[in-house]
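Re: beginner question about structure tokens

> Can someone show what the tokenized structure looks like for a real chain? I only ever see the sequence side.

Sure, here's an example I had lying around. Input first:
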Amino acid sequence: MAADYDLIIIGGGLAGASLACALAGSSLHIAVVEAIPASSDDQLSYDDRTTALAYSSRRIFEGIGVWRQIEQEGACPIHHILISDRGHFGFTRLHAVEAGLDALGYVATNRVMGRALSNVMQAANNIELLCPATIEQVKITADYASCSIRQRQQTRTISARLVVVAEGGRSGLREVLGIASKRKDYKQTAIVTNVTPGKSHDHVAYERFTETGPLALLPLQGQRCGVVWTTRQDHASTILSWDDQEFLQQLQQRFGNRLGKFERVGKRQSYPLFLNRVDEQTRERLVLIGNAAHAVHPVAGQGFNLGLRDVATLAQVLVEAVQHGDDIGALSVVRAYEEWRVRDNRIVSRFTDSLVRIFSNDFLPLVIGRNLGLLGVDFLPGLKREFSRRTSGLNGRLPRLARGLPLEPDHG
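And the corresponding structure tokens:
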């Protein structure tokens, strides 16, 4: 029995849509199953929250044909990053020119990225978007995977050689499939919003460590700044209850006056923070990517970029499997993907978790040590360049798209 599709992607948010776009125009027949239309206010992947994009993520977006629209509609480059420890002497300054890059990263809204990805998916002849639709069951056999989907009040079954789960961190399909995960609750909440400062941000991103968690201000188009304010879970409801004036005053007190007086604040949202990693990222005919496979603390802005490198790597593995005449759902193929990604996933998880633990501890020798460490990065050019490239997603074994190369080599 022939499968209905080569590939079924469960989840049409940023990660799932990026994978579909990476494979647009390939020989693979792809179905993307998404529960919430992109135009809906309930589509969390496509809301007005901002995301910090590493330089490697820009390359990936260029390779899949969405970067030009994202840039035109409002991607703000980060030319400098200032890292500081509130109330202490340590700081580090990172500069794009010292790292040999046009920018250390970019900041864009999820809605802008979602719109660009949707346009590419809709224009691709080999992609079929099933939306709104929900997955009720997944069965794996030796020859294909079948998915029972509910769409327009009806249930039907579709099949493919490979199913990719890209539902995000709240994926219920992991439980349905019996995939366990290891979760560490940071007992912190991220408050996300944007503000208008009195002074120009000059394309500087700020990461300020405080006693309740990191506070990030990210440059946006229109001289606004995206805010990611990490606080204790038991204090989050208080911050959300403040009126705009109180919020701005409290933010000012925590951040300081480098950007002048904060004048306006946008809508506030919140989400809990935890470290999570699944025990099985792959099975025969099954792959988990992005937040469905791993979630990290937002410190240093690594989470989405880690998932986008999942996308670029999996797309390359699948294209190469097709070129070699291999079954894209075979265990050897999906394990090749997992083995490629394990090092990057482990390094980023440990890096972000270590930052949270080190900078949330008031033990005096550790405080002195971490501030000396910040100064060391600032004053040692080799260490600074290495740190810049790490946070820009340019270290380690990178897939072709992350290196600025086309997904398929030109053999002409």
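Each token stands for a local structural state, so reading them left to right follows the chain. The CA atoms of residues 318 and 324 lie 10 Å apart.
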